[in-house]
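User: ok so my PI wants both of these folded by tonight, can you help

Assistant: No problem, let's get them done. Here's the first:
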Amino acid sequence: MEQNPTQKKNKKKGNKKLRTILTVAALAIVIAGAAVAYSVLSARSTADGMLYVRAEMTKQDVADSLNVHFGKKFADKVMLLTTYRDFEPARRSGAYRITKGMTAVEAWRMLVSGRQTPVKFTFNNLRTLDDFAQTADRQLAMSKEDILKLLTDSTHCASLGFNPQTIPAMLIPDTYEVYWAIKPEDLLKKMKGNFDNYWTETRVNQAEKLGLSPVDVATLASIVEEETAAKDERGTVARLYLNRLHKGMPLQSDPTVKFAIGDETLRRITLEHLKTESPYNTYIHQGLPPGPIRLPEKSTLTAILNAPEHDYIYMCAKEDFSGRHNFTNNYATHINNAHRYQAELNRRGIK
């Protein structure tokens, strides 16, 4: 039925009103969206720092960490963005560098892509594999137990070209750039790569001229480090032991006895200690022990490779307790040196 002029006019007014309402609604949505977008884009970190995401964390744990270290507004907007594209802490564990002024969008993109920031892993002055595992546990997202299990597993050590006794030679103290969430097996591969890089053809040839392998050098270096804290003495001590090895004499190193006993705090080695049965006791067994008794520094490895020539075969700690030694090639002189040192031990009541 044909509409009359009045009906047509009312319909036209109704359509115009509807268009106005829709336009206003659309504009409101745009304005609201723009406000949200602005609030997200304007949210920035209030501080520099590292966000550590552990596999066992929940999204709320991540939000709380962001809030505490980088500001509530920043944290809220980062987590708001995860409703658009989510991220799972279990799959994105790692360390993420947040810089002051970084936007929530930038942080969100970094998290959802798993774009971790490398961290520095440093170790030095360590004695045992347990010490190394503890250091890795403290600095990285791995447990001491997990990495120690690999270091003491014959099969895994063999895959790297070592055994549980020689593997300390592979762990050269240094500062390494790694991902915080690196797996224990990948960290050890990193250590192996550094070992291979250190042992260049030139250094291997230097070791061979001394009648040693790279592991032998590390083993001797570990004994030398335990023998003297005076770095300028280490080359001299190294050559003394090399002289003994070449003459077929036992090393008779007190630090190896301490290692065999398992007590690094011993200040006086007695005849009873010297009888300790262990492949590490160089008073009983000829040659080098099965592996390093600590993790030797690069500087000590260098001291072994460049040990100065001399004919000393005896050494004894100086009686002034300076940590330095008296050296000689004469047994009678050595005995006199030893008597002076023992007398000082007695005088100080050290047993």
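One down. Here's the second:
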Amino acid sequence: MSTTNPPQPSPTSQTKKPPVHSATARELMQKIEAKTATIAIVGLGYVGLPLVQAIRDGGFPVIGFDVDQKKIDALNSGKRYILHLGDDFFSNLKADKQFTPTSNAKDLAKADLIVLCVPTPLGQHHEPDLTYVFESTKTAAASLRKGQLVVLESTTYPGTTRDEMKPILDKSGLKCGEEYFLAYSPEREDPGSAGRSAQHIPKLVGGVDDVSTDLAMAFYTRVVKAAHRVSTAEIAESAKLLENIYRAVNIALVNEMKVVLTDMNIDVWEVIAAASTKPFGFQAFYPGPGLGGHCIPIDPYYLTWKAKEVGRNTKFIELAGEVNTSMPHYVIERTQHALNEHSKSIKGSKVLVLGIAYKKNIDDPRESPSAEIIELLRDRGADVSYHDPHLAKFPAMRKYRVDLSSVALTAATLSASDCVLILTDHDAVDYSLIGQHAKIVVDTRNAMANVPANRVKCEVIKS
């Protein structure tokens, strides 16, 4: 017989009483349960727009607000501006009478829930830039009324919802937890990945008080497959950072392995495949030319900055950042070495960059390492062009201005290039064509691995 005593309820769980909902909270709860609550999404980009569809599929009327009038015009005309969502997505939204796109901030007063899906970039010195969060919160506060729930979905440091947003909203004179409500539920978008639409990805929900959490949970459980309640907004904010830091650190590990193993003439891709046969204790991460997207290159620094407030250094996270940010320079080194082996200098060589989106099969170039790599190539005198089936023109970025348009991927284009540098492994690319007509391929994504040997007539350098 076991002598272990069964776990006893903690004093907190024994004495904690359910929150007392005000009449205002009860009224909002009834609207959510009846799906008569109007939801406003602030920010109609890569996070906000898929959430609009999830909410509409859940049966709620939606107001879509964005300060960019071009997006509103596109939605009103059914014109696609995010590739991976597809044409039908935009045409269906245009025909949906329960969706109202607007650039008029006064329309937010009509909403019962206001969900903020705005960017959280970094400043010049890797400090958090909450300009968009502050401005969108002020916009919500300008028309805040009794019975509204405000939810932040943007990735940020712990304490943002309570310590930064709440004081702005409190200036309305309304009392949080009784007259208006505030919660945090981090976005978990995975653009371009099949089966991972917004409604199928589980959500975390944490409010600044229990009543706010109750209301936010009632909403999200009606629009996504699963919602998980956490005790505070700070827990949800920290969990989002942990998710992305976990990926950044493991990508840094495999990037460092790639550099070391390459010098040993060992194929890191085969090593990863071999390690992946272990059914426990290992998760495959893959090397690349650097980090891209709005999350992984940015979010870890939100925690490193916040940690300094409590006198702590995040050495492990910062080291991972150093490894990942060094990868574009490593790619240049490998490209230069490949050209040298063919008696070519990088200066004056024609380099065709394949892919400028930060990941395959999407049209999102945010924080893409391709921009830095192209700039480094040009600094060394290379004649650079690019091909990307999803981005016809290199868009303006915060740090880089690359005045280039995508060239056609043809036998002539490939033959005229001294080196093809694969930075994004889009499925729409004919890699056999590259193998037939390129002179040198520097492959940072292992994209050429599935091309039959008899279709490869050039030198392929895994980088």
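Residues 19-231 form a domain with the Rossmann fold fold (CATH 3.40.50.720). The chain has two domains: 19-231, 328-462. Good luck tonight!
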